[in-house]
Amino acid sequence: MHVLIKGRALVAAIGIVLVAVACGTSSSASGGTVKVMAEWSGQEQANFLAVVKPFEDSTGIKVSYESTRDLTAVIKTRVAAGNPPDLAGVPNPQLLSQFAGQGKLTPLDGVLDMSALKQNYSQGWIDLGTYQGKLYQVYSWVSLKGLVWYNPKNFSAKGYQVPKTWADMITLQGQIKASGTTPWCIGLKSGGADDGWPGSDWLKEIVLSQSGPDVYDKWVAGTQKWTSPEIKSAFTTWGTILGSGDSNVYGGSNEITSASFKTAGDGLFTSPPKCYMHNQASFITSFFTSDNPSVQPGTDFNFFALPDVSSQFTGAHVVAGDSWGLFHDTPQARKLLNYLVTADAQGIWVKAGGKLSPNKQTPLSDYPDALSKESAQILVGTQIAKYDATDNMPADMRTAAWQAVLKFVQNQGNLDSILTNLDKVQATAYQSS
Amino acid sequence: MDFSVLLQDIPTLLVVIIGVPAVLAAYIVGGEYLVRRLPDKNRPRVRPWIWVGPALILVAGYLLIPAILTAIQSVENNRVDVLDPTTWGANFVGFRNFARQFADFPTGGAWVAIRNNVIFWLIFYTLFSLAFGLVLAVLFDRVKYEQFVKSLIFMPMAISSVALGLIWDFMYEYQPPGSAQTGTLNALVTTFLHHDPVSWLQDQWPGESFNLLNNLALIGAATWGITGFAMVILSAALKGIPADLLEAARVDGAGELTVFRRVIFPLMMPTIVVVGTTLVIFALKAFDVVYVMTSGNYGTDVLAYRMYNQLYLASNSGGASAVAIILLIAVIPVLIFNLRQFQAVEARR
């Protein structure tokens, strides 16, 4: 701890010196700069830079982008040192709510054109960004979770049909396994403290579709115990997908835990295929195409929405997205934020593939292929839309849940002790904020 | 990297490059000027304080005061503002933060991290690094290309620990049996031992309560990085042993092994102890390799990573401070021992 404080103090001290000097000599470059920080690297980073390019060209404002996979820690340090980025795009809205509670964020009600925003965004997205009556975070692209990706060529070669119901899907996985191939590819490695989240996506879909939105909300809020029959059943249902000893998944538990979520789905495209199905959010297409340049959406990969586990809750989908928080209310940052919520900006990212636009004005024709159009339509037509559960839990709970996923995959027999441990974390995680 | 940002604010750059040394010089010249004006007999008492003053202020500001504040935070809840003493009383929670770290032996709280630090890292990391360092130092002492191989062994020291972690991530990479093994170690294991590939970083062999394998995999990577350090210092100590002493032993009929055991080893002992205790401190504060390679999952957590996890990911400053204090208390005896040894070695010179 003392080392960390030491580092922080050092940064603060250097900061003070620099600020003191900068105040005396403030230079006014034309246009100015906006410092932006987010998690996107590689192809996603290129896509973001493409989105802001027209903005830079028309306003002369330079967007200085910084990327880190350890966003939570980096932003917290920068905020504590009084040196946050102007704008941050984060995948866990709970982090920004925390900053909003500490008064570190600027409310957006006076920054954005609210009447236009209400026209263009469905109320659900605005509610997600609202904290104590004020808008603090706004989404500019989102993804739809619970999509099962498959390779149509492999399916037709074997005469497999796209399953319409959960039971069909279980039958299909049995069929695939009987033919000597593993039905599924799963990769849980992400880097930093994020390992395990792709597995939690399975659990969210199952909880929502098996036990309904009320249980889901209570689960997020920390009032639904992990040991309760509903949550336990979500784990055991996922267990039927994994198979005993993870035998339904390519490479078993060793491969699941050591494969990256970015490359796990590539098993669909090998010859012979390593697996026939892969569950991942809509963003994964940009990884498919960058890893395997020859594959074409529609012909080489397609998706079906994860079937409803229970017919009681049909059309339930989990969504997620990156939300923006404004740390420094500068004219340049205001302009950029106002630009990012427009259909023009979101259309550029949408065209690059992998993301969906929450702005209703973004024309369907902007989506590059039939697949993304279809997921955009699912997003619009979703009857029960819930935000990613673990991303909305307190950080403590979220990390514990992801670690629990890893432990479950390594040994499904430990489920009871894993859930008891999660209950313990739940008892304290929601107190301190 | 875009360095043009540095040139945007040339006055700041000038202040940093010229101003900081100027202030330091002014302090020294001014201090000396004041000391000269003192009566002769007082000068020796005042002068050292003038010279060590800035260092003392830095140590106090960046080490001592934060350490005290950490200790305070460790007995307060997370609503406290440690910089504001008026909030201390209302948020005092006694040893609750520590109790939570020590709860549910042997798998709960910080126990896994404590076990890994105190058993696996402390024993294996220290032993491996010392043993390899000593063997390499002694053996290379006898070959012509000594400088060249020593530079090679020392090279990992120049690599950042994050890069080191990534390199070993590739070394340990796992592919399911039957596919081409892209990880060096698994390629060796499958080709020469005809054994199934091992997922080195995730496999909790021999059991979840005592997962030696993946901890050793992490320690192996860290050892590769630090062996050069141990080797260089031990090699310097070896060269300090007078040649006529060794010659006298050989003339008396001692074999090479006896010379090593009875002459070289005892003479090197003080240095070995100093290097060993330094390595013990490194072992207790292990962080980077764990952070990069496993994020503390699969039973590989260590105290420093847990501290980071509590502070940044769980927003639990109280818990993080408690872990920091535990770590501090664990290091203090080693630190004192190390300082004493160091003085002993100095005194013998």
Provide an overview of this structure.
- The complex is a heterodimer of chains A (433) and B (349).
- In chain A, 48% of the residues lie in helices and 13% in strands.
- In chain A, strands 1, 2, 3, 6, 10 and 11 form a six-stranded mixed β-sheet that branches. A three-stranded antiparallel β-sheet of chain A has the order 8-7-9.
- Chain A has 17 helices and eleven strands.
- Chain A is an alpha/beta fold and 433 residues long.
- In chain A, helix 2 links the parallel strand 1 and strand 2.
- In chain A, helix 2 packs antiparallel against helix 14 and helix 9 packs antiparallel against helix 10.
- Chain A has two domains: 32-144 and 320-382, D-Maltodextrin-Binding Protein, domain 2 (3-Layer(aba) Sandwich); 147-318 and 390-429, D-Maltodextrin-Binding Protein, domain 2 (3-Layer(aba) Sandwich).
- The two termini of chain A are 20 Å apart.
- With 349 residues, chain B is mainly alpha-helical.
- Chain B has two domains: 4-93, no CATH class; 104-314, Orthogonal Bundle (MetI-like fold), CATH 1.10.3720.
- Chain B has 14 helices and no strands.
- Chain B has helices spanning 4-8, 10-36, 43-73, 96-101, 111-140, 146-154, 161-171, 184-192, 212-239, 243-251, 256-284, 288-293, 303-313, 317-348.
- In chain B, helix 11 runs antiparallel to helix 14 and helix 13 (303-313) runs antiparallel to helix 14.
- The longest helix of chain B is centred in the C-terminal third of the chain and has 32 residues, at 317-348.
- Chains A and B meet through helix 1, helix 3, helix 11, helix 16 and helix 17 of A and helix 2, helix 3, helix 13 and helix 14 of B.
The domain tally of chain A reads 2
Task: List low-confidence stretches of chain B.
Answer: none
Largest sheet of chain B: none
Kindly name the structural category of chain B. mainly alpha
**How would a crystallographer describe the biggest sheet of chain A?**
6 strands, mixed
